[in-house]
Amino acid sequence: MLCTKLAFSTAYHPKTDGLAEKTIQTMEEILRRFCAYGMEYKDHEAYTNDWVTLQPEVQLVYNTTQHSTTGKTPSLVKKGWNPLFPLDHLKKNLLTIHPTAKDFHDMWNKPFDTAKKCIAEAKEYNKQKWDKTHMAPDFKEGTKF
């Protein structure tokens, strides 16, 4: 009825569909770079750079980052809107920012900024890998196939 296909996959050799495989590959690359930078994130217990703890935040940043393929964010494509962060509301209503609030804002945004940087690096790395092995066909008028 919905024309969906259930595809099972293994952990180390995923064979589902290209989009899911590419998303997983990109998320792995982002988390790998994020942990390599030695970023520490404060969860409810203590500071950590454990990728399992960081995954939800990195996923949120990934889903709110514009992708070169669609020109839109995954949240906008899937849901039709982008989520707003609490600081987005504060920025609209404040005329001046107290220095302590600025420090808090910078501390709060540091993981997001690092994740965005990691996403950009992962995109560039994956693009270079793709470009090495895939050449655009050179078709000329009159070429027979």
TrEMBL record:
One of its GO terms (cellular component) is nucleus. InterPro entries: Integrase_cat-core (IPR001584), RNaseH-like_sf (IPR012337), RNaseH_sf (IPR036397). The keyword RNA-binding applies. The keyword RNA-binding applies. GO terms for biological process: DNA integration. GO terms for molecular function: RNA binding. Residues 1-82 form the Integrase catalytic domain. Keywords: RNA-binding. SUPFAM superfamilies: Ribonuclease H-like. This is Integrase catalytic domain-containing protein. It comes from Austropuccinia psidii MF-1.
